[in-house]
Amino acid sequence: MIYPTSKFDNDGEKFTWLLEQVWEHKPYSSISPASGENPYYQAIVGMGRAALPLIYRDLKRGEKSVMSGHWSAALSYITQANPVSYEDRGKIAKMAEDWISWLEDHPDILWDLKE
């Protein structure tokens, strides 16, 4: 994966560009764009905590979310948490709700959130 790092003025621009690439380069063998095979998804994970407020903002969009519950793997990796209940596993909308609740219960993690 090659992307021009100088192209972005801030994390929000970088995140938006990477997110567009996630879907454009989704592996054909995968239903989910959130795949270890997708270098753009991995680049978002690589943003670490800087990506959390941006992911949260996308989750809050509900049905308009670009990734919705597909953020679960990235969020688990970045936060080292997994608030998704056993019953909600595989249910994209429910997984997103679980993560929204957890992130809102941990506002210190969303240190850079500006709505």
Tell me the number of helical segments per DSSP (H or I, 4 or more residues long).
5
SS-derived structural category:
mainly alpha
Name the average pLDDT: 82
- Strand tally, please? 0
Low-pLDDT regions: none
- Rounded to the nearest angstrom, the distance between the terminal CA atoms is 31 Å
Largest sheet: none
Beta fraction: under 5%
- Any idea what the radius of gyration is? 14 Å
Task: Please give the share of residues in helix.
Answer: 40-55%
Order of helices and strands: HHHHH
Give the arrangement of secondary structure elements.
Blueprint: H1 11-24, H2 39-46, H3 52-59, H4 72-79, H5 92-105
Helix pairs in contact: 1-2, 2-4
Task: Characterise the protein shown here.
There is one protein chain. The chain is an all-alpha fold and 115 residues long. It contains five helices and no strands. It has helices spanning 11-24, 39-46, 52-59, 72-79, 92-105.
Please tag this protein with its features:
115 residues, mainly alpha, 5 helices
What's the short story on this structure?
The chain is 45% helix and 0% strand. The chain is mostly helical and 115 residues long.
